[in-house]
Design brief:
142 residues; alpha+beta; Nuclear Transport Factor 2, Chain: A; 7-stranded mixed β-sheet; 3 helices; globular; DUF4440 domain-containing protein; NTF2-like_dom_sf
């Protein structure tokens, strides 16, 4: 982890589960990623393909749809920043990998991603995800 603060107990393990779950969703299996979300209504998703959801059922249901679109690939997270304070943690970085979307040809996918995690009774859960496809940097000319 680049740019990390002192990592609280269990957070490294939770981030490892996130990485493994992203590999699974890139191959079409959303269950491991959906299982990382806190129960209840106080979780949110601002998805790269447009969905904005609130509540565990809506968020995890959206990942079932996302997983149905992927095959033959994996997404690998790179956390540029991991910051934790008490029972909250934030990661900022990218997810990248080669995947098939909707049965198409394998293609590189790169997302900018922010996750918020909350520790509940000693276990870290995802409570927010904001992802988007990075736009071209207007300062760089081809």
């Amino acid at each position: 982890m680049n740019g990390s603060t002192t990592v609280p107990e269990g957070l490294d393990t939770a981030l490892g589960r996130v990485a493994a779950a992203l590999a699974a969703i890139g191959s079409g299996d959303p269950a491991p990623y959906a299982a990382l979300w806190a129960p209840g209504h106080d979780v949110t998703l601002y998805g790269a393909w447009g969905p904005v959801e609130r509540g565990n059922d809506a968020v995890t249901g959206t990942f079932t749809w996302v997983g149905s679109r992927f095959s033959d690939g994996a997404l690998v997270p790179r956390n540029d920043l991991v910051h934790a304070d008490g029972d909250l943690a934030v990661t900022v970085g990218t997810e990248e990998g080669t995947v098939r979307v909707d049965g198409g040809e394998p293609a590189l996918m790169r997302l900018r991603v922010t996750h918020v995690l909350r520790r509940v009774e000693g276990r870290w859960y995802l409570v927010h995800r904001h992802a988007d496809f990075p736009p071209a940097d207007p300062r760089r000319r081809s």
